[in-house]
Specification:
Layout lengths: L2 H9 L3 H23 L2 H17 L11 H57 L3 H12 L4 H8 L3 H19 L4 H6 L2
């Protein structure tokens, strides 16, 4: 059977003619499209899809020509379509990822704001001297010795006031923020 005879027979619905053309061109088409995809499995899928289209559109075949060029064109177009589909999927995945990340950042920002508010409330509720010392150390960055000198108290008193502040902060956050609890241990 020649290629042209197979085309004529296939147009008449002959599945054996289709099988003949499939066996004749399959390996060549896979090799051809693999030069683009660099993935044999993906290439085989593309070629199989091309042969499905070839069978479905058999009525459009020219009975005077070899189907070789037509098959190569179908395979190439299927490859291009697979790239477009892959790009769309990647774009969709990127959009989903970006939305999820943005939502996560919003959630984290909201949670952080709540923690900051709670921390401010706890600090405001500290005894005046304790509050003054923790603000000087943790917010203004002043060392214990310098705080002691500025306030005319001993370094041990500064340490004692810091310990009181940390204890109150730990108590306030131990229920709902284990990470912060660990930070002030």
């Amino acid at each position: 059977m020649t290629e042209i005879e197979a085309v004529v027979a296939m147009k008449g619905g002959d599945q054996m003619a289709f099988k003949y053309l499939f066996n004749l061109f399959y390996d060549r088409l896979v090799a051809y499209i693999t030069t683009y995809t660099h993935d044999k499995i993906e290439s085989e899928e593309i070629v199989q899809q091309a042969f499905i289209s070839f069978w479905e559109n058999k009525s459009k075949l020219d009975e005077t020509k070899s189907p070789k060029s037509y098959l190569y064109a179908i395979v190439y177009n299927k490859f291009i379509n697979s790239i477009k589909k892959s790009k769309k999927q990647n774009e969709l995945l990127n959009q989903i990822w970006e939305r999820a990340l943005a939502n996560r950042i919003e959630e984290d920002t909201d949670a952080l704001q709540l923690r900051i508010q709670k921390m401010q409330q706890v600090i405001e509720a500290l005894p005046p001297k304790c509050k003054e010392i923790i603000v000087m150390n943790k917010i203004q960055g002043i060392k214990y010795k310098d705080i002691a000198d500025q306030l005319g108290i001993s370094v041990k008193t500064v340490e004692s006031q810091m310990r009181i502040a940390f204890t109150k902060i730990r108590e306030a956050f131990k229920e709902n923020d284990p990470l912060l609890f660990l930070l002030f241990k």
